[in-house]
């Protein structure tokens, strides 16, 4: 039985979406971060990193959201990772880029605007991150101008993982209307039945 630990509104969200893409049955296990359940002895046995998400597939346990999604796709629907070496390479390229390059400045802003009281926000963090994002979004927009999806004409895990990062721009009131290719790509992805099911978990 698959068990996913963490809220759909956390970084576990991309795993919930992947589970819906794969049409798999799963059990959602709530981890109360306010009550420090992520640091409990029981949870640390599953994820010594003390973060969410974490996934258990019977006796197999794995953490880190993109690694989890790679595992799930590889086991249950390998075409989401690509049919060729070249496509698989691009999938991993964009997976890594979304986490290492684009996600960090967006999350920096998100934390300051969502979790930090207005009178205690570090404006220098926000300003720095706001300068970093435009060239990254321009790079992504340019890449999407040459093909329908990140790795070609077919939807892959890279699109799913990237979309969860780009979608955060709305939560931080970042205007991405100038990036026409990103807007089209994101709109197409949000029409997917699996995304529609996932989005209902966010309400």
Question: What key attributes describe this structure?
Answer:
203 residues, 56% helix, 4-stranded mixed β-sheet, 4 strands, 9 helices, alpha+beta
What is the overall shape? globular
Query: What order do the SSEs take from the amino end to the carboxyl end, as H and E?
Result: EHEHEEHHHHHHH
Q: How much is the radius of gyration in Å?
A: 17 Å
Largest sheet: 4 strands, mixed
**What's the arrangement of strands in the largest beta sheet?**
2-1-3-4
Beta-strand proportion: 5-15%
Number of helices: 9
Low-confidence stretches: none
Q: What is the residue-mean pLDDT, rounded to a whole number? A: 97
Helix content bin: 55-70%
Output the structural class.
alpha+beta
Q: What is the strand tally?
A: 4
Distance between the termini: 25 Å
């Amino acid at each position: 039985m698959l068990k996913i630990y963490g809220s759909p509104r956390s970084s576990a969200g991309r795993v919930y979406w992947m589970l819906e893409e794969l049409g798999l049955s799963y059990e959602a296990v709530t981890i109360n971060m306010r009550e420090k359940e992520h640091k409990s002895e029981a949870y640390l046995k599953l994820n010594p990193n003390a973060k969410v998400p974490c996934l258990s597939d019977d006796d197999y346990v794995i953490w880190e959201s993109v690694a989890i999604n790679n595992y799930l796709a590889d086991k249950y629907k390998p075409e989401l990772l690509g049919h060729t070496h070249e496509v698989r390479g691009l999938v991993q390229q964009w997976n890594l880029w979304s986490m290492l390059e684009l996600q960090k400045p967006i999350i920096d802003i998100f934390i300051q605007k969502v979790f930090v009281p207005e009178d205690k926000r570090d404006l220098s963090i926000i300003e720095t991150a706001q300068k970093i994002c435009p060239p990254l979004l321009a790079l992504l927009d340019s890449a999407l101008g040459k093909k329908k999806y990140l790795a070609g004409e077919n939807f892959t895990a890279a699109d799913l993982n990237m979309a969860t990062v780009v979608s955060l721009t709305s939560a931080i009131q970042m205007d991405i209307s100038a990036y026409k290719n990103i807007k089209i790509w994101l709109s197409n992805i949000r029409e997917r039945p699996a995304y529609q099911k996932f989005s209902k978990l966010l309400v």
